[in-house]
Amino acid sequence: MPRFYRSKGVPEYRLAYLFFLSVALWLLFNWLRGIIWSSLLETEIAEFGVLEKSISVDGLLIRQETLVTTPVKGRLRPLVEEGQRVRVGAAIAEVLPGSEGVRTAESYVLTASRAGVVSYYYDGLETVLSPEMLNELDLDKLATFMETAQTSTSFSNPAVRIVDNHKPLYLYFQINPEKLFEVEIGNTLSLYLPGKEEAVKAEVVRLEKEAEHTTVLVRLPYQDHLLNQRHISFRLVTDSYRGIIVERSLLVFKEGKAGIYVMKAGRIYWQPVKVLGEVGEKVAIDGIEEGSELLTGPLTNLLETLRINP
Q1: Using one digit for the tens of pLDDT, what is the confidence trace for 228-271?
Q2: 265-276: per-residue pLDDT in tens?
Q3: DSSP at 168
Q4: Which domains are seen in the chain, by residue range?
Q5: CA nearest 204: which of 190, 186, 177?
Q6: How far apart are the first and last CA of the chain?
Q7: Whether the predicted model's global pTM rises above the 0.90 cut
């Protein structure tokens, strides 16, 4: 009589072993895939910042200052370093009469008529341009000073300038209305002054709008490094955008929507974003968290071309 054998099933412990082995291999595969992609793809960390659009402007500085003159002619010998603050009545310079420049009984000592910072630079506009006259001054006439004011160190008699560094500066400029956003008296403007890396805040105190140009007068904190400058070229911020700042080339458009590739946990995702503004080759975007890992480099473009999502 034929014998029948009952087949023995796979032991349960072997099934469990195969299950855990499959899970481990799957995790290992994803881990290795993440390492491989991370080594092949270039990335950068998303950082929050401010993107600013600015234009170059020429301006005229007005400050609280006094010109101290001498009744005698001769050679001026400074007694105080330029830029040093002095009190009222302090000796600031000596005038040595004659061409030899030798001290005699006729030598004349200049004293400070007010407290302030000493400067041996003067241009003849100290008595014409003063903060006290700004409310009555015709702003359009200031444009003539932009063209005619020159440094003058050859007055008939020597002079020394005393600047009150405890008082604010005023800055006059004209600009094309199309280049300046809507601004009113009391608004705050951001200026990048020469010799200054950070923007300076300035308050609009007078404003005259015409078809050809807009005339602006702003008040700003005193600037030590501009002691001897009357005319300056500066940059006026006309627009600013706050968000994640990236290169425009990182944007990838799908169905008319802007997005950017983000790497997370070894996988790559296309994340839609909102473009807030752009300046040059950089854009400010919203929709990406700060600290996210953004894909850059040529392989990113290859992924988009092949429509691959590793």
Answers
A1: 999 999 999 988 999 999 999 899 898 889 999 998 877 788 99
A2: 777 889 999 999
A3: -
A4: 37-51+242-306 (2.40.420.20), 65-129+151-166 (2.40.50.100)
A5: 186
A6: 61
A7: no
